[in-house]
Automatic annotation (TrEMBL):
Family stated for the protein in its record: Belongs to the HPPK family.
Enzyme Commission code(s) on record: 2.7.6.3
Keyword Kinase attached: yes
Species this chain originates from: Pseudoruegeria aquimaris
InterPro entries: Hppk, Hppk_sf
Gene Ontology biological process: folic acid biosynthetic process; tetrahydrofolate biosynthetic process
Keyword tags: ATP-binding, Folate biosynthesis, Kinase, Nucleotide-binding, Transferase
Protein name: 2-amino-4-hydroxy-6-hydroxymethyldihydropteridine pyrophosphokinase
Pathway noted in the entry: Cofactor biosynthesis; tetrahydrofolate biosynthesis; 2-amino-4-hydroxy-6-hydroxymethyl-7,8-dihydropteridine diphosphate from 7,8-dihydroneopterin triphosphate: step 4/4
Amino acid sequence: MVPQPSSSHKTETIALIALGGNVTSSIGTPLQTLQSAIRELAAEVGTIRRRSRFFRTPCFPAGAGPDYVNAAIALETRLAPRPLLDALHRIEAAFGRERVERWGQRTLDLDLLAYGDLVLPDLATQDRWRNLPEQEQRLRAPDDLVLPHPRLQERAFVLIPLAEVAPEWRHPVLGLTVAQMRESLSAEACEGVEPLAESRRAGA
């Protein structure tokens, strides 16, 4: 019999997750949706070790819809990467997310950015998706889980919140920490990414 991959690990791993949304859900506003999703993650997936503030960020690509609310968490979990991604997708669906348009408007987006220092499925595939031209990014998505997330190093709406929860995490391929990647962003790239006043009062 061929051994089947386990859905969990004996030891816990820190996963880095980006959250975003820009349209209302059955819960309420994007901020309320993200707050509820974080509670759901804590109840079903693992232990939240750190959570960033909530940020208002311009819609990406520009003009595609309302501004987003974004955040990031460091989650300690026993789930293996693929079951963890499946759990994120189930939570997205519970909040009304429909995967009908790449980079389209959505009630909730939960992106698995990194799982410890794991590289999946292999270095060559990671390099190929990380270096994919932007016009192709709009049209194509990987068939399998790619870790670290191939676009995390270039997106202010990911790196600014992520720098609040895991500044010392080092990209296993690029060799740069989150803090270094955040510092390398241009002022233009960071324009409009601002903490929400509500985030000072919002709990996980």
